[in-house]
Design brief:
By secondary structure, the chain is α/β, with parallel strands linked by helices. The strands form eight sheets. An eight-stranded parallel barrel has the order 10-11-14-17-18-19-22-23. Strands 3, 4, 7, 8 and 9 form a five-stranded antiparallel beta sheet that branches. Strands 24-25-26-30-28 form a five-stranded antiparallel beta sheet.
Amino acid sequence: MNRRRYPVGAELVGGRVHVRVWAPKRSNIEVVAGGPDGRASTLSAEGNGYFSGVAEHLRAGSAYGFRLDGSDRIYPDPASRYQPDGPHGPSQVVDPKSFGWTDATWRGVPDSGRVVYELHLGTFTAAGTLESARAELPELAALGINVIELMPLADFTGAFGWGYDGVCLFAPCRLYGRPDELRAFVDSAHALGVAVILDVVYNHFGPAGNYLAEFSDHYFTDRYTNEWGDAINFDGEASAPVREFFISNARYWIDEFHFDGLRLDATQSIGDSSSTHVIAEIAEAVRQAAGTRRTYLVAENEPQHARLARSPEQGGFGLDALWNDDFHHTAMVALTGHNPAYYSDHQGTPQELISALRWGYLFQGQRYEWQKKARGSPALDLQAKHFVTYIQNHDQIANSARGQRLHELTSPGRLRAVTALMLLAPPTPMLFQGQEFAASAPFLFFADQESELARVVRTGRADFLKQFPAIASSADLDLLADPGARSTFEVCKLDFRERTTHAPAYRLHQDLLRLRREDPAFAQERSDALYGAVLGPEALLLRISCPTGDRLLLMNLGRDLQLSPAPEPLLAPPDERGWHLLWSSEDPLYGGHGTPVPEPGLNWSVPGHALLVLAPAGDDT
């Protein structure tokens, strides 16, 4: 018999279905075809809690489940590859070789020039399916997107949700399509030069449809606290099979679906005191599964631990990049003028923006008043490529009363300027779906749960948002969308006609991504080539040094600024040449009001609510 590919689950091996499960809590495991009255076969006990055997009555496409110790109830496979009726229903045998891949020459995530696009499949298109999302891939590629980050796909209960309450980690969510449709999405993206990474949740399981405790009491631990549920047991008694389960899951997405990497959710809640952290083992498993393909591993880490993005040789976990909430927070304060709740330690000053783009995290061990403790660790050695910057993402848009997009919260000029700052600065930029055309659709928190759990979720969401004083009044809380209402989910769907009706915003993003891609100064993405200075209370300059010609970015979020004199060496023209205007956020093509031709030889005039890009005179790259 040929060897299995993964430690657990139902696999086609040598033409037959081999089933293996870890269930140390049980003494007898039967594989049952279809429902409770289906044909059954008993698995053999291997020891160490494992049971396995060939299920002669199963084939590709067969529905099956487990009968535990002779009970009447049939449970889904903890490592099910597909749940056609959701987490409460039977599992299905999947043949991963049934799909014909065409990406043999694909080399993976680009070494440089990455532009990430976060996408929620249920709301990205009206249909909310993989097939309909696949049809939009050419437009995303033409825009300049080369890394798509899919929000979690592990199957969860209900008819809609964000995906962070997944319970079937190996089963692509049936709401979006079948496993082969996910393979087709990735294959088509690769054909267009677009990598696809998957957001995975390895810190908790969802509250409904999780049957792991029926198989073992060792999946979870009380050694660590977790705000979303029971913490995963990565380092306690009988933790080896648990670690293997998650590490295999990471390898599975890369191997069987050709994903180009992972985004690891809330890594601060993955507790592990082992000599080698499970995150480091996940990173190694992903690299091995990808072979010669380049992968991209990104972490969300609220405490801002730089170690995750250092190599194992440097004592790190070997990930590629970290989400930079500090940039988001200071940019939001600069854009809106408000800094409540977790924004309260950010002032939105020019210096904060410069430092976030040059050094990554703003808090690298200093006291964080909002949390009444130190936050972060030194990260001065990390480069721009180690940070992902954004001004919108799923969490931050939804963490408001109405899930409003940024264009509804600030002035058009300010938003154009900060968008340009993010898209032209060295760190890797990320857009959230629809941001590129100023989508009118909000992005709210939605989760379809059973009645009592739905009430708990609704109350919990309202309690979370009470940290914002503007929302905390009872009147405002009454306006919060019900997470369990179908209408809350439906209103978040994008309308792609807005690429045309909101053409100035779309053109802005197209041109900025082209400039980032084609201009040699921006394309180099080097933080050590970035120099910055504060020009005024709401104005800054960035100078990006480049052998072929430096670039100046002048951004002013306040009133028109006249610098006369201008005793700032970063304004000095290169090689005694003058500067000329290369690009302006106030171009009428983007809905701006035009830009007076700067005359830096006489004085420096920086218009308000704008960002200007200057190049050496005669350089029209």
